[in-house]
Amino acid sequence: MPRPHVERDVDATRHAHSHGHGHAHSHGHSHAHGVRAWLKGVFVPHSHDVSDSIDDALQASRAGIRAVKVSLVLLGLTAAAQLVIVVVSGSVALLADTIHNVSDALTAIPLWIAFVLARRPASPRYPYGFGRAEDLAGLFVVAMIALSALVAGVESVRRLADPQPLEHLGWVAAAGVVGFAGNEAVAVLRIRVGRRIGSAALVADGVHARADGFTSLAVVIGAGGVWAGFPLADPIVGLVITAAIVVLLAGTARDVGRRLLDGVDPGLVAQVEQALVEVPDVERTTDVRLRWSGHRLLVQVSVAVSPGTSVAAADAIAGRAAAAVRRALPSAGRVDITTTPSAAA
Known about the structure:
Elements: E1 6-11, H1 35-43, H2 57-89, H3 92-105, H4 108-118, H5 132-161, H6 169-197, H7 200-227, H8 233-260, H9 266-277, E2 284-293, E3 296-305, H10 311-328, E4 332-341
Parallel strand pairs: 3-4
Antiparallel strand pairs: 1-4, 2-3
Helix pairs in contact: 2-3, 2-4, 2-6, 4-5, 5-7, 5-8, 6-7, 7-8, 9-10
Subcellular location: Membrane
Region (Disordered): 1-30
GO cellular component, one term: plasma membrane
């Protein structure tokens, strides 16, 4: 007589696990090298689908919040330095650009709120928790990158059709250098931490900072062209930078959209299947489903066991299977294992 299936629920936010294993974790994809790979990393950075360094949900959220706080301080210092240049030069255009940078920096606040919400426990109304708030914040960041591309493109076309003389070239270039340095530092921080904790939204916010840095870099290059006697350098460089932002936008929208559609790296599914092959008494894996909720990976697996297995033995097998999945995917949040008799699978 077939026995009923047994489900094993393991939630990283409720249980501490000591892995103590010494194997390397693969990302499920290979990394190319060389100039082409460097350009791809700059223009199309992606969030790793596995967190190798942080396997605790609260610790990962704290790391994300800390990155947002530090980046806000860096952008505040950048804006303050630009404001000093505005006061010294008296340039209204630089003042407008400084205000734009401050407003862009505030887009990190929704992400901060999302990280805080992700730490709240699940409720009857939200049984899967609040991790999706992070993905929604990522969608907001994508919209802001699109807006940056639109503003840069429209302004470049306007200046190309109706060239305007650039004044205070030295100060303009100085403000551009400050803006690029500050935004790029923030981009590197957000992208690095976002990859480490598996947050597509934080990576997207890093891309947003990089897009703003490219805009500042365009100001520097354009000012140099005007100083060299080529007044159209400013709008032409602006169009090139707009194209670069569009490339950044495409890659970021792909990553955030994939998370919202419950897409995962197929390599992760293969890792789970391979881990379960090594679990004693698991005859085969019948179903593997993974999806992200913010920066935590939710895992649902169905495995087939011998028809004569008792309920207690099946529960023990499910426990070993869950432990094997966690060893393979340290970033996993909730792991649900369902056992079914092999004859009924």
